[in-house]
Amino acid sequence: MNSAKKILKNQGLGTENPAKSKGAAVSNKNKILLAIGIIVILVLSLGICYIQLRPREILEVTGLDKTGAAVTNKVYYKEAMYDIYMAETQYNSYEQIYRQIYGGRTYWEAENVDDEGNDGATVAKKQIMDSIKQREILYMEAMKADLSLTDAENKTVNEQVESTMKNLSASQKRIAGLDEKTIKSVVEKEALAQKYKQQVISGLGIDEAALKKTVSKKDYRQYTLQYYTFAKTEKDKDGKDVSKDAAALKKAKTDMETLRKKAATAKDFTKDIIADKDKDNKDDSTGISYSTKDLLETDKDFLDDATRKQVKAMKNGAISEVIETKDAYYVIKMVNNDDPKAYNNQCTQVVSDEKEKQFDTKYNSEIKGNYTTEVQSYWKGRVNVGYLTSGTSN
To answer: What's this model's pTM, rounded to 2 decimal places?
Structure first.
């Protein structure tokens, strides 16, 4: 019996401290709770990461492929960031103009931008989505037509992507969707969509020669001018135009006479005529400035009627005497009194407008209806354009 007790004692049986046993149980329980807590945190963290990083679908486009089978293309928020960047860059570049138009508000904040009373951000967002829808539909049509980009077209895509990446700031490049790979995929898709669009336009039978005949050569005759000028008026403290004092005008006329003599004998009318260290096309001391003008036959906003007639009569290469009008002094050089640039540009514009008009009719009546588009809830409720890529709000 004593021997058995000794064996049990040596094995620790029957001699365990109750307090110590209770503490060990608590310790084990805490370890279990800690492990459970860690697992919960990991699950929540993974869930948050998934929510934040998972692809956000913004559009589904469904149509038939070339075999007649239904196919659905999905567009994700990341793919739309390039379109958003381009729109925000465009509108923000005219911020000062929009602030004048909309009473100090940016385009995004401006109210009643469209007939439905929407603000600029809402209108721009709709335009972006409409553009994405059309691109996806035309891209799917391009796939059905087995179109692909040529080496030259791929080169153009690469150049566009390279140019975009150079213009992006370091912070913009960190925005999901403004990485080089994503931008390239969007630009490639756009290039294929446009290739299909041009294929459609080519089949419309548009008579370009007939369209060009509708442009008046007389109205779009261009007089290409270079000139130096000194304004005879200035703004007062209230922003009103007032005449400069007589002494200043007398000196300005003398300065213009001197400039005219110098310009008449110069090899280049544009160089070394005025002292312009800060390169703002304005003389550093006299205030005489240099500019150019593509004067059309129909223009009425440059010079007065009599002076315009006088200028239009000048021969190519001729330099005028100092011309004085109610508002300024001028020395003008006639570069080309029958420049075809404006006429050619207008012909191109007329043809382009007609192509777009007929394509829109074709697209809306025969192409668009073959597809269904469904804008997803994330785009509708979570995306607000205006400052997504600019990083500012005022």
So the answer is: 0.78
